[in-house]
Amino acid sequence: MSFTSLISRPEDQTYTVHPGSQTATSCTFELLSPRRSKTIPYGYLHMIDTTDDHTIFLRYAFADVELVPNRTFTAKRQFLDDLANFRVSTIRETSQMKIRIRMEPGTDKPELF
């Protein structure tokens, strides 16, 4: 087995952190179906909440993001620490993590992604 086969490619990782010691200014959510991405600045993040079933909720000023990791996602504590310190730059929907984004536009009918 070669050493390079032990290092996963960034596009295969559930999340990536901002390189260097500075914090990220935004977080990009990459969804699978249909394939698209949403970038939301950390300045709009109001709260990070977790539930007993391991679901993570990110409450932004105009959106709610629900992250549902499965049992094979073993880096939950490090992930939450990276989120709380604005180091996460990208979260990808993978077999280990499902993402739901609910936008709250100015109308009474919220848009669901």
Please sum up the structure shown.
This protein has a five-stranded antiparallel β-sheet with strand order 4-5-6-8-9, with helices on one face. The protein is 8% helix and 42% strand. It has one domain (8-112).
Could you outline the blueprint of secondary structure elements for this entry?
Blueprint: E1 15-17, E2 26-31, E3 36-41, E4 45-50, E5 56-60, E6 63-69, H1 76-84, E7 88-92, E8 97-103, E9 111-112
Query: CA-to-CA gap between the ends?
Result: 40 Å
Strand content: 35-45%
How would you characterize the largest beta sheet?
5 strands, antiparallel
Looking at the structure, what is the overall shape? Answer: globular
Low-confidence stretches: 1-7
Number of strands: 9
The SSE order reads EEEEEEHEEE
As laid out across the biggest beta sheet, the strand order is 4-5-6-8-9
Binned, the helix content reads under 10%
- State mean pLDDT (0 to 100 scale): 85
Structure classification? mainly beta
Rg on CA atoms, Å: 15 Å
User: Tally the helices: what do you get?
Assistant: 1
Number of domains: 1
